[in-house]
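Provenance and format

Records in this collection were gathered into a single text stream. Each protein contributes a sequence line and a token line. The two records reproduced below are adjacent in the stream.
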Amino acid sequence: MDGRIAEMLHQKGATFVFLGVPKGTVFGIDLKCWHTDEEFRGIRLIPPGMHYIYYASASVTEIDDVSQRSGFFQYFNENDIIVKMWDKKTEDVSMEIVNEQTVERIRENLNNIDRYLAPYPYDIWSRWHCLSRQISEALAKKLSPEKGLIRSEEFHSIPDSERPRGIKKCKGSSKKEEKEKTTENREEPSQGSSEHLHKGEGSYQESSPGPSGTRRLSRMTEKEREDAMLPNLKPVEGTVMRFTEIPKNKYPPGSTPMEITKHHLDQSYTLELMIAQHDEPLHIIGELQFAYAIFLIGHYWSGFDHWRNLVLLLCSCEDALDKYRDVFIHFIATIQHQMKELPLEFLCGIEMEQNVFYKKFREFFRNVYSAKSNQNIIIMIEKLKKNLFDLFQWEFPNEDTDDDDEKPVVVEME
């Protein structure tokens, strides 16, 4: 580390104290993680700004056997000391706020515990800052679950009476009889009739509901039957991510068929609706960075889905390119860094013309050129194209032409 930077971090760097963490726990900050030893007490010399802290309990007997990752975003001001405690009962971080007296006592004895604090891995700081610079403290709090911890959603257990029972065959029914009875049930005009369903004569019976339920089941598709077998689980309050919902209707109410087609091709209207749900336009890029971080670092799969949907949306806009120029400048810069960190297996091995990211980037480049965008954006686009070629060998020739499956169909009239 450069001497000047080291001096700055000693004067302004923050400290994260994590007490009671068991040996072998996976602990990480930003793009770096370790297995803790018995003397681990936290991290020092943390650059002020937004950071992502995460952990996973390890097995006592097998160090490679770890639980799912849990994490949270934490904003550090200069010289901050943030203290968290490990809860042995729950084998998780305690969400109770450590009182000020304890924090001050640790601050006064910081020199004594300094040797138990690992230095922040400054070699990752530049990469992390490029991936997270638009995630503000308020935005991270807005998008995170109410309880603050980011991990796979927890669901309420359901009572036995509410568990799906499905359907069961009646004793003594052959496959042929079952098929015939199912056909009869589909043809029955009246739901009130139960003639074929009493005394074991029907092909299928519900475990608890009456005959009308059986007839409804007999008319279900295979997919509907499978869904009926799944329990209606409800997530535990405070554990659900609060991403901005992408509108399903991509056009204004009362649009003509021609306008509906336009809004599906150019999704600037949808982007406008999402930006309106944020305090400022650049927060949409902050949400893109937030979703990517919890997927890449926190191993939270829904983060990947949301990140992917936001990338596809931003690549599908043309009219918004000029109105939200700063948004798209930061989008291009962000996606350039994200693609470098993305595991190659997510995009390699897929035929270029079949890869949805490749096709959307190509569409985005065409939109930029056709909109006659700012010269700075054009320069950034050319750099992004070069980086994508270096990473994935993706080529983007003839941006002004359509892909084969997007070309208009010409019908010759006799």
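Adjacent record:
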Amino acid sequence: MEIEILTTVGSKSLGKITLNDDATIQNVKEKIYQNLKKSLYPERQAIKPEAKGKSLKDETTLKSLNIQDGSKLYVADLGPQISYKNVFLAEYAGPLFVYLWVYQRPWILYGEQTSSPGTVANIAAVCWTFHYAKRLLETVFVHRFSHGTMPIRNLFKNCTYYWLFALYIAYHVNHPLFTAPCNVCVYVGLAGFVLCELGNLSIHLLLKNLRPPGTKVRRIPMPDGNPFSLLLNYVSCPNYTYEFGSWVFFTVLTKCAPVGIFAAVGMYQMSVWAINKHRNYKKEFPDYPKSRKAILPFIL
């Protein structure tokens, strides 16, 4: 059958493509790229049934949409794209290198200083390194992304956020005039940080095992016997809960206001993501546990 492809802006016709009725939206994208517009590679396209309609999923078949010979579909240009993996690697590698550079107390930031960082600054550097090294390794070996790419502008936005916060935090924690908190704060902060990091890793591994390689299968995440996964009985996104907990305890460990600001800003953004995921879970799975909240047990 023959389908006309129009742009979502101005409804300009790009031409017509020929497909079988069992073709998918992914096949439509490939045909547009091959036959109509070389600058619109598949990852850059969003296919819609109407100019202002919702984007169709790649695996959706034309037959299921009742697309017939002579039908029209609309294509939106999402702009230049970059893979999620590359964005994650850049946004996590930056804070690791920035923090460790500041940890060396470079003269450009602190002038000519001869003293070495104290015990708490040393512990904080190890914790920071562990966190971002873990994030990098998870990006390469654990995460399975439901979307392959994102707009390239997100690379600059995300890197700016992570890299500047790393510089802001590192400058204060490693400052020669930094005053260490009491020993109780250090012990509690360190213990809580380690537990939350292990919890975060546990949930990421659980989520990985829910989705077979090369698929976009979605299932209800449930506790798997790992005690850290029991948080799934109370929230839909325990990985975010543990992430927030890590930075709360890092704040306790360092007693540093910039870390607390970073934790608060991160909590706001993760809450937005968690609420959206929680809403999608309930919409997609009729039997989704009703007792769960999005990110904070019994609260949010």
